[in-house]
From TrEMBL:
Protein name as annotated: MIF4G domain-containing protein
Organism: Aegilops tauschii subsp. strangulata (Goatgrass)
Gene Ontology CC annotations of this record: nuclear cap binding complex; nucleus
GO BP terms in the entry: mRNA export from nucleus; nuclear-transcribed mRNA catabolic process, nonsense-mediated decay
Source taxonomy: Eukaryota, Viridiplantae, Streptophyta, Embryophyta, Tracheophyta
Domain MIF4G-like type stretches: 74-199, 224-303
SUPFAM superfamilies for the chain: ARM repeat
PANTHER family per UniProt: CAP BINDING PROTEIN (PTHR12412), NUCLEAR CAP-BINDING PROTEIN SUBUNIT 1 (PTHR12412:SF2)
Length: 305
C-alpha cells in the first residue's frame, strides 16, 4: 500500500470520527404515508437533520427548535421521524446517547402538537409490527425509549390495539415488548397508575409484574409485638405528617432517641421510616428526601455509618 493510500485512509477515518456517518436509512413508513418528495429533496433534508442533531448535541430544546424551522417549503415530519429513529436504532451504537434522541422527540411533540405526535404513533406501530425481525439490541433501545416517552405524556397509549399479545407465547417478541414496556413504566411511576392506564385493555393486566411493596421492618401489625423501634417509627411518621421542620425532628432524635438507643439504631429507624413514607412513588421519595434528607446526613457524618 502506497503512502498516499495510507494518508487517504487516515483522512477518511478522521472524517468519520468528526462528522456523522451517512444515514443508514430505516424505512419505517410506507411510501403512500410519507411525504412525497424528490430524492434530492429528501437527501438535502436528511443532511439538514443530521447536521442539526450533530451541532446541537446536548442542547435538546435548541435542536428541536431548528429541526422544526428548516428552510424548506414542504412538510417533512415523517422524514424527520424516520431519520431520528434511524439514528436511535443504528447498530452497533447510535452516534449520540439514546437519551438525547428521546428528549428531542419529546420536544418535537410539544413544538408540533398537531402533527408530530401522530407521526410518532405511526412509527411505533410500524416498528411494533416488524419487531420480530428486529435486532435484540434495537428492541431494547425501543423499549427504553418508548417507556420513557410515555412517562412524559401521562402514560397515554391505545393499549387495546395490542391486547391480543396476551394470547401469544411468552417468548413472542411483541408480547415481550409490551411486557417490558409496562415493567419499565412502573419503575418510572407506580403500579396503580400503570394498571389504570391499561384499563381499556384488561387482558394486559396479566403482563404486569407482581405488585411490589416496601420491606419495612417497623410496619405496624397487630399480629406482631410492638417494639421500641415501632413506637419511634410511628412517632416519626406523625411528626412528618404534622409538617414538623427538619430542625425539630433532628433535635427530637438527638435528645431523645440517640441517648437511649444509640446512633446506629436511630439511623436504622429514621432511614427506614422515611423511605417507607416515600415508597408510594419515585416522586414521593424525592420529595421526602429533599425535605428530610438532612436528618440522615446529620446522623451519618461518616459515610461508613
Amino acid at each position: 500500500m502506497s503512502s498516499s493510500e495510507i494518508l487517504k485512509g487516515q483522512e477518511k477515518h478522521e472524517a468519520n470520527l468528526k462528522y456523522p456517518q451517512r444515514l443508514r436509512r430505516l424505512h419505517i413508513f410506507p411510501t403512500n404515508k410519507a411525504e412525497n418528495m424528490q430524492p434530492v429533496d429528501r437527501f438535502v433534508v436528511e443532511e439538514y437533520i443530521l447536521d442539526v442533531l450533530l451541532f446541537f448535541n446536548g442542547c435538546r430544546k435548541e435542536c428541536a427548535f431548528y429541526l422544526v424551522s428548516l428552510p424548506v417549503s414542504f412538510r417533512y415530519e415523517y422524514l424527520m421521524a424516520e431519520t431520528i429513529f434511524s439514528q436511535l436504532l443504528l447498530l452497533p451504537n447510535p452516534p449520540f446517547r439514546p437519551i438525547y434522541y428521546t428528549l428531542v422527540i419529546i420536544d418535537l411533540c410539544k413544538a408540533l402538537p398537531a402533527a408530530f405526535p401522530s407521526v410518532v404513533v405511526a412509527a411505533v406501530h410500524a416498528l411494533f409490527d416488524r419487531i420480530s425481525n428486529m435486532d435484540t439490541e434495537c428492541r431494547t433501545r425501543l423499549i427504553l425509549w418508548f417507556s420513557h416517552h410515555l412517562s412524559n405524556f401521562q402514560f397515554i397509549w391505545p393499549w387495546q390495539e395490542w391486547a391480543n399479545v396476551k394470547g401469544l407465547p411468552k417468548w413472542a417478541p411483541q408480547r415481550v415488548f409490551v411486557q417490558e414496556v409496562l415493567e419499565r413504566e412502573i419503575r418510572l411511576s407506580y403500579f396503580e397508575k400503570i394498571k389504570q392506564s391499561i384499563e381499556d385493555a384488561a387482558e394486559l393486566e396479566g403482563l404486569l409484574p407482581p405488585k411490589a411493596g416496601p420491606n419495612f421492618r417497623y410496619h405496624t401489625d397487630e399480629s406482631k409485638e410492638s417494639t421500641e423501634g415501632h413506637r419511634i417509627s410511628k412517632e416519626l411518621v406523625s411528626m412528618v405528617r404534622g409538617r414538623k421542620t427538619t430542625r425539630d425532628i433532628i433535635l427530637w432524635v438527638e435528645e431523645q432517641i440517640v441517648p437511649a438507643n444509640g446512633t446506629k439504631f436511630a439511623v436504622d429507624v429514621v432511614s427506614q421510616t422515611l423511605l417507607d413514607i416515600g415508597s408510594k412513588s419515585f416522586t414521593h421519595l424525592i420529595t421526602v428526601l429533599e425535605r428530610y434528607g438532612q436528618i440522615i446526613s446529620k446522623l451519618c457524618p461518616d459515610e461508613e455509618m
